[in-house]
Design a protein that fits this description.
- 2 copies of one chain form a homodimer.
- The first copy, chain A, is an alpha/beta fold.
- In chain A, 42% of the residues lie in helices and 15% in strands.
- Chain A is built from 12 helices and 12 strands.
- Chain A has a 6-stranded parallel β-sheet, with helices on both faces. A 4-stranded parallel β-sheet of chain A has the order 7-6-8-9, sandwiched between helices. In chain A, strands 10-12 form a two-stranded antiparallel ribbon.
- In chain A, α5 crosses α12.
- The longest helix of chain A is centred in the middle third of the chain and has 16 residues.
- The first copy, chain A, starts with 13 loop residues before the first helix and ends in a 14-residue tail after the last strand.
- The relative contact order of chain A is 0.11.
- At the A-B interface, α3, α4, α5, β2 and α6 of A face α3, α4, α5, β2 and α6 of B.
Amino acid sequence: MPMEREGQTRRVTSHDIARLANVSQATVSRVLTGKSGVAPERRDRVLWALEQTGYRRNAAATAMRTGRTRTAAVVVSDVRNPFYPELLATLGSELAAHDYRMILWETGAGEDHAAAAVREHLVDGLLFCTAMPGSPALAAARSAGVPVVLLNRTLPDAGVDQVSGDNHAAAATVAGHLLAAGHEHLALVTGPADASTSEERAEGFRSVVRAAGVRWLEVAGDFSHDTARTLGHELLRGQRHPSAVFCVNDLTAFGVLNAATACGRSVPQDVAVVGFDDIPMAAWERLALTTVRQPIAEMAHHAVQRLVARLEGDDSPPTHRRLPCTLVVRDSTGGASPIRDA
Amino acid sequence: MPMEREGQTRRVTSHDIARLANVSQATVSRVLTGKSGVAPERRDRVLWALEQTGYRRNAAATAMRTGRTRTAAVVVSDVRNPFYPELLATLGSELAAHDYRMILWETGAGEDHAAAAVREHLVDGLLFCTAMPGSPALAAARSAGVPVVLLNRTLPDAGVDQVSGDNHAAAATVAGHLLAAGHEHLALVTGPADASTSEERAEGFRSVVRAAGVRWLEVAGDFSHDTARTLGHELLRGQRHPSAVFCVNDLTAFGVLNAATACGRSVPQDVAVVGFDDIPMAAWERLALTTVRQPIAEMAHHAVQRLVARLEGDDSPPTHRRLPCTLVVRDSTGGASPIRDA
């Protein structure tokens, strides 16, 4: 039943679709906007009618009319760090529950595109997971008045809602765990100096170790496995190597674990290793990493709540929510029993 | 210099921006559309002028005028499988080089949203990395006439361009590698039955093993680590366990490696393990997985080339490009020397 006949180009309406599919216009609308709650059999009839008629709902026209795209962008700097895909999986379902589409932008190559898209109001709001001072997309969002929530990495005086783990307290717990096991030759592998997560975790660790009067060695990584593997090799190949290494994220810790294997050092007997994030592979038998579990789902939930509230007009002062984290002890620091007893 | 004065709301034009920033209108346009090739100092002046005036280029208006969003969507089913972030990183830079923005949709929770967005022409084209028969977003794209390229997973008679690794040939090579090492108790861990990658790899493996008159055991996984770890435990805990296991992707192989560790089996002495993809962690010392390297960057390059050609009006018959893959031998099958000599 083609609705466009020779010499006749009447525009197909959603009313036509509803009649053809034998459903209500509300049902057609639910299918068109991707809402749930339509029985599969009815949904199939609507899709069939859409195909028969070649109907096109014009998103550009809707966006011009409503000023809304119902799209939220998530910005991350490195989707190859498995922490971010974990966060994205929860953000996607939380946003869908509020009837928002999620799109992902990776900074770097895409950052100028993202900034341009924000300026053009192609998205209603932004969840920024890897904020750094001077991020172009962040600056664009703020100058365009697009609501922003900083998630995971935060910025002082950002003037927007922020949600993060309590990095400082959790890293202090890590330092206590290593000191209690009797370690006196400690090393710390940090991330980029501008990243709040790295700085807060490093400072939490330093504060406890300093108070205990123990000296520590410090090297600067970049959150990546490969850099950490090179640094780990430098740290561990000599005879007087550290007996414990705290890394500000799990990927960095895996780099040090692999370097230990390459140098013939046993973990945890020769060197204990601790990470931060508790990404799923930290629990793998081959890696068995002691680390800090961030409450990823809870963080994503709070960030989406704040963004949706702002999109609905909440203009209360910005909040910064820091969620508590948990130390998860695995084989890389000797499992449940302290190293001294091993 | 606010352009909106009391009692006066003249619309700010890009001409105003150019004058205020002391650059050409072409430069303003380049900055607004996120193109490269603008000197940082000039770009900063344009951004400053945009902020001063509160200028908004309206993407919805542009999209209505041109019928184009210059946005391509990449659809994947599980961004937590590290293969996809690797692919995304290359797709993002390839698309940016053609002046297209990339957005990511994950199927599952987001699939209906993606289908709706495609029907609304919010994106110009679609790169589908995890096609399955009956994918709603794929059906929506085809009925809406939005160009689609299938990348990685393919579908018979899809009627669109497809780019994949030569899965059948590569898996046949894996079977030859294991048979040459003298293995006679083989196991195969597949993925979902509908996924072309799993089916082609399984069939390539079977064809060689069958021809050699060697029997093999087969179990169905789902591409995930956790399912594979459970299956691996079943396979390896008994005394008469397989001496070699081929897994249709790397995550599955890591699950079997971890199960081997949990069962106290040495790799490769008690059991050899082979994966498929060569994601970066396959090279980690703690995992050291023999696997098949897919030419990820080349696959992404060809897929973007095809999509851009279609967007520019190429209506030649659809092509299916299969790119050759390479066997990478690591410790999980005994490294460079065959197991028989170990």
